[in-house]
Amino acid sequence: MLKSKKAEVIEKLASSLQNSTAVVVCDYKGLTVSELEELRKSAKVKDTSVQVVKNTLATIALEKAGMTGLDLKDTNIFVWSDDVIAASKVASDFAKANDKFTVKSGYLDKEPADAAKIAAFAKLPGREELLGMLAATWMAPIANFTIGLDALRRQKEEA
Fold first, then answer.
1. Quick one: how many helices (H) and strands (E) in the chain?
2. Per the confidence metrics, is the pTM higher than 0.90?
3. How far is CA 40 from CA 13, 21, 36, 92, 132, in A?
4. Is residue 59 pLDDT above 80, yes or no?
5. Which of 12, 76, 122, 139 would staple 92 via disulfide (CB 3.0–4.6 Å)?
6. C-alpha span between 30 and 95 (Å, rounded)
7. How far is Cα 90 from Cα 95, in angstroms, rounded to an integer?
8. Is the pLDDT assigned to residue 29 strictly greater than 80?
9. Rounded to whole angstroms, how far apart are CA atoms 44 and 121?
10. What is the dihedral of CA 38, 42, 48, 52, to 10 degrees?
11. Residue 66 in contact with residue 136, Cβ under 8 Å?
12. Each residue of 120-147: pLDDT tens digit?
């Protein structure tokens, strides 16, 4: 790869990583191309990016993005997103479905995270689920009020 191409890859990756809140580093050794395409498709649904990058280029890009301390060895694939839970879920769910895919480490909210912390974030409900819970909580008093009014109306009609 030419130096200019390497610099372009580093800049593009660094700017993308800098704007994300979650970066998950996984080992993909032994996966087929079709299995990796499944990962990319499931990530795309959750607005998450997936890319295989050489370790030296990834290290430079991570340092430019302000994320230092990751020890990149062997084969690595990067999963990143603006949503911490989405990136964690994409990586963890794919790891559960494929024995050859393992979550190594990453960054969550610009802080280093190990595989256990990423798995813990993956168990949390997603943004849409949390918004649904919040809406249900806000609607509960209104629903109870209307039920009470309806019961009062029935009582008045019977009397």
1. 6, 5
2. no
3. 17, 19, 6, 14, 27
4. yes
5. 122
6. 13
7. 9
8. yes
9. 19
10. -10
11. no
12. 888 888 778 888 888 888 988 888 888 8
